[in-house]
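Shapes recur. Our protein:

. . .
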Amino acid sequence: MRVLITGITGMAGSHLADYLLSTSEDVEIYGTFRWRSRMENVAHLKGKVNLIQCELTDFTNAVKALEISKPDFIFHLAAQSYVLASWSSPTATMLENPRMQINLFEAMLMTGIDCPILVALSSEEYGMVYPNELPITEDNPLRPLSPYAVSKVTQDMMAYQYHKSHGLKTIRTRAFNHEGPRRGHVFVTSNFARQIALIEAGKQEPVLYVGNLDAKRDWSDVRDIVRAYWLAVNRCVPGEVYVIASGQSYSVQEMLDMLILMSDAEVEIRQDPARMRPSDVMLLQGDPSKFKAQTGWKPEIPLQQTLSDLLNHWREEVRGLNGW
């Protein structure tokens, strides 16, 4: 079995590789990375996976990745996924995310590769959600509130169109927030965990900088999400879209409170205007009923364990830092 994971150096990509290696002795994993990728996330996979340096924004690179990997399954996870960065670089986000996907799709058509391809989408597509519209299903309207979210809506519709027009076996998954070890420090809960670890180590003043703490999100553990991705390519219907979520929501404030309780450090909470978005998605809570019925999946890792593992990950990272 040959698997291609685009964006293997990301949190989800690296955990997906871990999961596949732990559950199958007969899997050959290929993963794309860019020169600026976080290679530390896959250092433990050296000798276990095949890494392909690849800029998916270049069509020739997309073809090369497919010709090298000859995959039986594709997981398209590569993206500019930081919402706040999409406000400062809207053009790059709006162009790069759809371009990477269309190059991959066109490369599949050109090379004749006809395998299931999971397209990792986002709950951010729903954007402006009203309380009477909860919980969110696949049928909720899409009202994106950031350039990143618009780029994911574009990917979503493109995956549908290429299935209908060309018969590509696209499986669209709108995963809600997921966290865990190896999460980039720019993302909210990981950023909190990193700041706490730095404060504990005496490498940051005892001030924890935050943005909007009122937004509510539906969080799952990344290790549950990648297990869902594997079930999706094996059991879901090509062309369909699926919500993957825990079904519960917590505010950013609640996530921060849980992390602080896991530390003995005394901290002052201070709002940083630079962390505020021009418009923010205030309320997300998913209904994974369709996905559960199709696959039998359910989340297994408690949120407390996710946050504990995330904080311990940053404690280990901070021990290796020489100052800030």
User: Anything to note?
Assistant: Residues 182-217+248-284+301-319 form a domain with the UDP-galactose 4-epimerase; domain 1 fold (CATH 3.90.25.10).
